[in-house]
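thought: user wants a sequence for this fold. calling inverse folding tool.
action: design(structure=
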């Protein structure tokens, strides 16, 4: 370049010089030195001109070559752009498409040329417009970004895209962006499905425990005002429904229940299925005026109408534990769930259809209960139990006609613990099965021993637990105990409760099979549970035990008196014997005698006593042959 300029300068100087010489020659006389000087000048001019022409040619060639090279580059870019398997668009600064490659057709359904000159915003789904425009602007400022957006394809369907946007540099400024994008609709669907599997319950489609915990954590750390409550709900006696009516039935019930809980919570909460028959509600109230009992009552109200499943109409109740979450940072999610769980166990203890709001003092009870549960496991291993027997008498003759075996636990530190305290825990934890088996075996063994020692033979009654009653091999187990202890079956009586007869079909079959062994069956605490009178007459039941709550007020409460009279009449119609429990006074005995109750059991005659006291009683009766009341 420098050379060309030099030669051009030289050429111009030579041309001026030459022109001056020519003028001088024309206007002056010629002499040799002048001619020589002119010749040299012409020579110089020719040389410089030649060099200059060569230079100009060379330059033109170089430019041509450069042009050819640039053209090749553009061709390379074009062919790359067009043959890339991923979709690429070049977008101008004003947001219009400059160029789009053919791979985009598979995603958008449009011919790539269709885009040219049109704004990209025409194609972006309205919900993703703000986000996409924001990413576009940021890319124009020089950022390289990867983001997800949604467009509408030619058919109007939503297509999810993952876009990488790169600024196109033009010297110092950015002239537009290059967007490289691929269709991630299927990928996102799969990811969503995986997420759904991990975070939602299969059966009900509700959030599962994992998601519930995450949502709760989020609430706990972000909330500044209003109130948040966690409700834990457990279906009363669901195990019974499931085992007697089948798992499919149970599943349909869970589905319908999930729906009702969801309806009662409305838009203010999230309902989740934690496991089995346990549901949870995360209730959020921005006003902070929620009365937690209102939430529980709304759920109870939803459950008032019965569930119709297959040919059954079923009333279901739930127990509810409620824990308040406090303000941000007060508790973590584990604590809140634990508190709601404690409140739930408290509600369960109260019976069905109850709710409890967690109070800090409940923690203490919970710890106690937890310790008791642990101790109970050890107690079963170490056989820390013993039986007391409460005698039963025939009113008419005064003879002792039986004993009820009542379990006691000799706790190493707490002394004797009554069954009311540990039987519910044993039921809950399943420890009741080995425990009840121990009672059965021990009662049979003891009764046989009394008979072998020559005492008058009287049957022993053993209380059956719900779990035990639902055991499929119950009859076989009892047959084994009778066989093991050589007790004749007529001396064993099993006490069931009305709730065990709820599933009529199952109860009938189970009771029939027990009856076939030759043992007796009585219904304990009669009048406190629900039993269908229609079916009662078909159950192979020998005896009804009137609950002591009716006997207690028999003289004061005319309703209780009427109930007792009705039970006696009804039982006699069905050829069943009636025994009244909890008889404490002569007046109560007088009433029962007047209305022809057959037998009594209660403190009036004897509290539950140890086996040697029973032996004394039997001995006294044997000796006097008149152990009369
Ligand atoms: P239950 O079968 O109704 O037993 C009668 C309960 O009434 C016994 O309480 C007995 O001590 C009490 N009782 C007897 N006479 C009177 C009276 O005149 N007045 C009053 N106020 N109470 C009286 P206990 O022994 O504490 O047993 C409570 C419950 O525990 C039993 O009620 C029974 O449901 C359950 N239970 C006891 N032993 C066993 C067992 O071995 N297995 C199972 N599954 N449950 C048992
Ligand atoms: Mg009993
Ligand atoms: Mg009872």
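)
observation: tool returned 629 residues.
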């Amino acid at each position: 370049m420098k050379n060309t300029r030099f030669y051009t300068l030289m050429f111009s100087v030579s041309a001026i010089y030459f022109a001056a010489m020519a003028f001088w020659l024309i206007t002056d006389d010629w002499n040799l030195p002048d001619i020589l000087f002119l010749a040299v000048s012409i020579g110089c001019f020719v040389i410089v001109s030649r060099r200059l022409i060569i230079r100009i040619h060379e330059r033109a060639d170089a430019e041509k070559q450069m042009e050819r090279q640039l053209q090749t580059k553009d061709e390379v870019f074009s062919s790359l752009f067009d043959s890339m398997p991923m979709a690429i668009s070049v977008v101008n600064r004003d947001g219009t498409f400059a160029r789009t490659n053919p791979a985009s057709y598979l995603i958008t359904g449009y011919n790539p040329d269709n885009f040219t000159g049109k704004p990209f915003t025409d194609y972006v789904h309205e919900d993703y417009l703000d986000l996409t425009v924001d990413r576009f602007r940021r890319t124009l400022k020089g950022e390289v970004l990867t983001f997800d957006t949604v467009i509408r394809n030619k058919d109007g369907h939503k297509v999810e895209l993952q876009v990488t946007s790169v600024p196109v540099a033009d010297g110092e400024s950015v002239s537009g962006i290059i967007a490289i994008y691929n269709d991630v609709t299927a990928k996102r669907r799969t990811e969503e499905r995986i997420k759904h599997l991990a975070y939602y319950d299969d059966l009900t489609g509700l959030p599962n425990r994992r998601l519930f915990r995450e949502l709760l954590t989020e609430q706990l750390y972000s909330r500044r005002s209003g109130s948040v409550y966690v409700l834990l709900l457990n279906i009363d006696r669901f195990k019974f429904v499931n085992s007697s009516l089948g798992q499919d039935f149970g599943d349909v019930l869970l589905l319908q229940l999930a729906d009702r809980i969801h309806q009662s919570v409305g838009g203010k909460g999230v309902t989740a299925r934690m496991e089995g028959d346990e549901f949870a509600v995360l209730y959020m109230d921005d006003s902070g005026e929620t009365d937690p009992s209102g939430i529980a009552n709304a759920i109870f109200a939803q459950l008032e109408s019965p569930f119709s499943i297959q040919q059954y109409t079923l009333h279901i109740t739930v127990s509810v534990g409620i824990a308040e979450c406090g303000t941000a940072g007060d508790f973590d999610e584990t604590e809140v769930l634990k508190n709601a769980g404690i409140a739930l166990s408290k509600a369960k203890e109260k019976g069905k259809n109850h709710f409890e709001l967690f109070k800090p003092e409940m923690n203490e009870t919970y710890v106690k209960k937890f310790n008791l549960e642990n101790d109970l496991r050890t107690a079963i291993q170490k056989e820390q139990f013993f039986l007391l027997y409460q005698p039963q008498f025939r009113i008419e003759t005064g003879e002792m006609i039986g004993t009820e075996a009542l379990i006691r636990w000799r706790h190493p530190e707490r002394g004797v613990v009554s069954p009311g305290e540990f039987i519910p825990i044993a039921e809950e934890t399943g420890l009741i099965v080995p425990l009840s088996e121990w009672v059965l075996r021990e009662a049979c063994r003891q009764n046989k021993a009394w008979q072998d020692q020559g005492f008058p033979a009287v049957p022993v009654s053993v209380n059956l637990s719900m779990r035990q009653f639902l055991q499929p091999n119950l009859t076989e187990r009892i047959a084994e105990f009778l066989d093991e202890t050589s007790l004749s079956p007529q001396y064993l009586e099993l006490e069931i409760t009305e709730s065990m007869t709820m599933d009529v079909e199952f109860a009938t079959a189970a009771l029939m099979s027990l009856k076939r062994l030759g043992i007796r069956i009585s219904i304990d605490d009669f009048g406190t549970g629900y039993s269908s009178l229609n079916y009662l007459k078909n159950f192979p039941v020998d005896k009804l035990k009137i609950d002591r709550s009716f006997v207690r007020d028999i003289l004061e409460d005319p309703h209780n008196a009427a109930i007792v009279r009705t039970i006696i009449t009804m039982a006699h119609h069905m050829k069943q014997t009636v025994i009244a429990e909890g008889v404490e006074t002569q007046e109560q005995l007088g009433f029962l005698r007047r209305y022809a109750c057959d037998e009594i059991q209660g403190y009036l005659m004897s509290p539950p006593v140890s086996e040697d006291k029973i032996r004394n009683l039997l001995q006294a009766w044997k000796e006097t042959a008149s152990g009369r009341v």
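thought: summarizing for user.
answer: Here is the designed sequence. The CA atoms of residues 97 and 115 lie 6 Å apart.
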